Amino acid sequence: MNTPTLVTYLVLAAVVVVLLGFAVRQMLKGWMHRVQRQAGAVGLLPALPDTVGPATVSATKGMYIGSTFTPSWQDRIAVGSLGFRSKAVLTRYPEGIMLQLTGGSPIWIPEESITAIRTERAIAGKVLTYDGILAIRWQLPSGTEIDTGFRSDDRRELAKWVEEDSK
């Protein structure tokens, strides 16, 4: 390889690195702008209770998909723990629902805030070909109504969540 060709490759590589860095910076800037824009609507999440009764629906392992503003299944919330997809364990108590996230803060959904629990095919950009996502509609302390999506490792476990809500 001669020197002019090597210099050309190095210049092109530097341009590609700069363009990739710029694209990543713009994506992060957009995400942070979304967080700032949504912070007022989301407000503070409910505090974890000091004690809870025995579980009415046992722990269900799976994936926290994300939360969205209702009624749009695509308007993803980016604020705090609500904004990041992660492995999770979902458990229902008489006082509410505990969503324990791997690598994140737990999310507490008080019983009086829950308006519906159903299965869906899509939420927060995740789309399935079957009703395999548990969607919990609830109201934040700020008054904003959101849907929280959870995909169980075993799809058959979702039936006990929907049954428990219909009681």
Tell me about this structure.
The chain crosses the membrane at residues 6-24. Residues 43-164 form the PH domain. Keywords: Membrane, Transmembrane, Transmembrane helix. With 167 residues, this protein is an alpha+beta fold. The protein has two domains: 1-42; 57-166, PH-domain like. The protein is built from two helices and nine strands; from the N terminus they run αβββββββββα. The chain has helices at residues 3-42, 158-166, and strands at 57-69, 86-93, 96-101, 107-110, 114-120, 122-123, 126-127, 133-139, 145-152. The protein has a seven-stranded antiparallel β-sheet, with helices on one face. A hairpin with a 2-residue loop joins strand 6 and strand 7 (126-127). The longest helix is centred in the first third of the chain and has 40 residues, at 3-42. It is elongated and about 75 Å long.
SSE topology sketch:
Layout: H1 3-42, E1 57-69, E2 86-93, E3 96-101, E4 107-110, E5 114-120, E6 122-123, E7 126-127, E8 133-139, E9 145-152, H2 158-166
Antiparallel strand pairs: 1-2, 1-9, 2-3, 3-4, 5-8, 6-7, 8-9
Keywords: Membrane, Transmembrane, Transmembrane helix
Domain PH: 43-164
Pfam families: bPH_11
String of helices and strands: HEEEEEEEEEH
Largest sheet: 7 strands, antiparallel
What fraction, in percent, of the residue positions are helical?
A: 25-40%
CATH architecture of the largest domain: Roll
The CATH C-level class name of the largest domain: Mainly Beta
Which parts are unreliable, with pLDDT below 50 for 5 consecutive residues or more? none
Give the percentage of residues in beta strands: 25-35%
Q: What oligomerization state is this entry in?
A: single chain
CATH homolog superfamily of the largest domain = Pleckstrin-homology domain (PH domain)/Phosphotyrosine-binding domain (PTB)
Total DSSP E strands: 9
Computed over alpha carbons, the radius of gyration is 21 Å
Shape: elongated
User: What is the number of helices?
Assistant: 2
| CATH fold group of the largest domain | PH-domain like
Report, as a whole number of angstroms, the end-to-end distance.
Answer: 75 Å
Order of strands, widest sheet: 4-3-2-1-9-8-5
What do the pLDDT scores average to? 89
